Amino acid sequence: MSESVLVFIALNAILAYSFYAVLVAGQLSLGQAGFAALGGFTAAALAPAPSEVGDLPALLVAVVIGMVVGALAAVVLGLPTMHLRGVFLAIATLGFAEAVRILLINAEWTGGANGMSVTKVVTPVIAWVCLALVAYWFWRQGPSSYGRALAAIREDELAARAMGIDVGRHRLSAFVTAGAVAGLYGVLWAYYVRLLAPEDFDFARAIDGLVMAVVGGSTVWLGPLLGGAFMTSVPEVLRSIGVEAGWIRPFISSALLLVVIIFLPGGLGSLLPRVGARAPADLAEGGEGLAPRSGRALPSPGETVVRVSGGNKDYGGVHAVRDVDLTIASGEVVGLIGPNGAGKTTLVNMISGLVPPSSGTFEVLGTTPGRTAVHKVAQAGVSRTFQHSKLFPRLSALENVLVGAHVVSRPTFLRRLLWLPGARRDESQVVVHAARCLERAGLGDRSREDAGSLSYGDQRRLEIARALAAEPSLLILDEPAAGMNHVEADALSRLIGSLAAEGLTILLIEHNVGMVMRTCDRIVVLNFGEVIAAGTPEEIVNDPAVVEAYLGGDDATPPGTETEEVR
Amino acid sequence: MQQLLNGLFLGSIYALFAIGFTLVFGILDRLNLAHPAVFAAAAFVGIELVAVGGLSIWVALPLVAVFGAFLGLVIERVAFRPLRGRPDAHFAGLIGSIGLGGMFIALLLWRYGPDTRRFPVEAFPSTAFDLGPARVTLLQVAILVISVLLMAGLTWLVARSRLGRAMRAVAENPRAATVLGLNVDRVTATTFALSSALGAVAGALFALNVNSAQLGMGTAIELKGLAVIIVGGMGSLPGALVGGLILGLAEVFAVQYVGSSWRDLVAFGLLFLLLVVRPQGLFGSRRVREV
What we know:
Chain B: Pfam families: BPD_transp_2. Chain B: It is a multi-pass membrane protein. The complex is a heterodimer of chains A (567) and B (291). With 567 residues, chain A is of the alpha/beta class. Chain A is 52% helix and 11% strand. Chain A starts with a helix and ends in a 16-residue tail after the last helix. Chain B has a domain at 13-119 and 130-218. Chain B has helices spanning 2-28, 35-51, 57-80, 89-112, 138-160, 162-172, 174-179, 184-210, 217-232, 237-257, 263-277, and strands at residues 128-131, 134-137. Chain B has a two-stranded antiparallel sheet with strand order 1-2. Residues 287-291 of chain B have low confidence and may be disordered.
């Protein structure tokens, strides 16, 4: 292999890493060519000439300038565009990159379309050292709490928010990482090709980077390296076996791209054995129950946890929730029942901050959901499950629960970079904690399976384990027993009972009325968005309004313990 | 006045190209990056039909549309259908269509070589009219009329016809559409065929308009097509029309008043501004996310 091929493999892999940096968080950005151009040109213009200070010092200064400029550009672009998703973000960032290119072509200091001549300093060794550092960064990032949070955002942004992850900040930091890595690419490119031209950083280059990242595998840290090596060496291999220039080479490259994407869904990286977090074999240490990790004490019994007064939610002309007053004291287990469409889920969505109320005051654990960001409400001690499972499907069961523990675990990424022993200790503590939560939910033997491949009932239980991992003060369960049989529902009842015994406050939405009657201290009945009854299970069973709402008749039987609603 | 008209003609081609892009995006939620390759391929095939086959341009254009539709079917079958149902279907389709588009371009290189091709001079009568101070060629009028007719036809098709109803049902919820007995595969394939047929006609008209066809012509218009569908609103057909015209006018006036080297900056500046202020575009509607 010639020197230039070696260097280009390293450079392309670094470019691919700048795409990987945002793809792991589920963002598609095509602005990297712009960051690279800004970084490369600024560094080439500002850094001292290699003839004056020596090759390596000049390159080091240039790399620092380039990465800082790339990161700054990412902040400037990221702040106004972080609310965009998917293709919109891709096209906005692409527009930015094109604008940068045209600015550079028209600027004086860049030499315009003719470009800028730069001394060639980069050698294969330098290029590969830089690549190794970048790859090391992402290797250490992956299994850290920061890396898991990014993966959670990729899999399900809303659920990530509800687990207490500050999605905006994480997305922006992923974006800035991409900017810095792209800046590094721009500088290395400048100091290798001798003549730096704005055309080097066009749309086609951005597409190349994206293709290499995806072909290599956008969820495996070695992926970009594999993708870069593959896409760079295919034309070289074709040349060496005697395929002439012309149409055959681009044809085969494109066809290989298609084949990889169709037959290797996870990219080349999926051929590597997967190493995920592993549950410890021995959970015995520390005894039963959930030893608090957060240091956050539960609110003292009887203290008000939730206060809703005059809560309203309108969707157009539909009043989903009307003038609801609800107070929940610490340690209570409150059931929320009512026919379909009664507004139960809307109410808990407002309590957990996911949906802003149309009017009314909400106070939950000292926060005001609707005005307080969702992740802040979660950090205050609210944790929930969703009516339709919102797990992180491509993460293992254990990893799902680890994400749930986000608010009670310490950040480990920077310490992992430096191999500080504290990081490993913290990580293994969180893993033990998560494994216990899985165990409690009855999923101890499922820890390594992907959440998306679990059975329906197991997915419901995994949601509960994930919510428990956050050590909540208020646990909201939205139809946890849906789709479970009697045996499973009974086990769930016992779990809720034991959690209540530990002092957790629980708000339970459930259609299995029998289960609600057995588990709850107090029941609130909603119908057409209004509270039609509230009281102890006995009072509710005998309330005529409830009977009316459930069965619609005059002389019907009350919602007895065996009446499960047909849905 | 002259500039206004020029912008209009250019814009109608952009719109015709973009409307194919946006049709697939609006209905299937996929960005088909092989679309630019169809655009280029159609220009070359159109030139061959007229120059070598000796056909009239009025026979060649429908044939080009059929050719485009065929490519659309191939794209759907090869680059999109195998990827359905994957968690990252969005990225995967994007990459798959880039690969297939690259193969198309490579095949063009094999058949036609790397040189620029042109329609023969006599392919289209060079009649021109004077409209007050401005001068309009018959070709430009034809381009405008064909583009507007095709777009109006497509809008009618999607809004009124049985096929259009099926397309909108698939857009809303593919699974429910299947349950209701719609052949989702066939509707999807038809959507791709229609989209590519429009892209192909746009390619042939573009080659007529600038009187040249190059292998890279698709890449050049790809960015503009993306800009147009964003400005108009993703998936909105009238949006693509208006967006195309706005972009055409903006470019022509930018060249006039700011200089040609800044032309593309105007387009992307507008695009960027609009995305930040109104991401759903001028005509798009924002989808409410469900919890």
